[in-house]
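name: query_chain
kind: protein
chains: 1
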Amino acid sequence: MKPSTEYSGEYRPENMKTVESLAAWHEKRFKIFKEDPATWKDIDYVSFETLPMLQEIKAVRHVMAKYNRADDRPKPWWISCVFPNDDLTLPDGSTVATVVSAMLSQSDTEGQPPWGIGINCTDIKKLAPLISRYEAAAQNILGPDIQWTWLVTYPDGAQGSVYNTETQQWEIDPEMRAEGPQIPWHEELAEIVRETAERGRWKGIVVGGCCKTTPDSIGKLRKRLEERGS
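structure:
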């Protein structure tokens, strides 16, 4: 989206920051697929990704609660957020604990939690600590004795590059260059997935890549995961 508002949450017009306005925006687009039987039949999963605001998570929950209540066989769906900040908060400043609470809480208006929750379009260096915070928050909400939702994660493959939202170009980060050679993206992600899977908290893990990953990146990741039995 221009001007890269998925990284800032500075949606235009200004009234696009309320739960009501965001829910209306998402519902209008969701209905295009839902109300066409042939199209809806071909859809396996519904993804709301790269969300930068707490209010948008709540808006999506409201939309999906409305439609899932009227659907005998609702589609699996997930919410995934973007974390560009160094302090591991959303662009609007929301903490991981607040984000996960909004994703997993249950009420009459929110309905059942999503099939999966996750992280996308985020620097892979932040992924492991973010997952740890997701797990701590989920345990506080759901407790230790309940197997949680699926975890969905597809970090970017920039490795040493930073997206400039002004120029809308990828630029080499001088600090990353000074650190020297990077661990290959597929190796780093496979190790994070292995460690997460070993903790055994999630029903399963969906893993992939976002910005600057390629079919070759995903092929190498799949091979590495298969070698490790993940």
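note: The CA atoms of residues 58 and 107 lie 12 Å apart.
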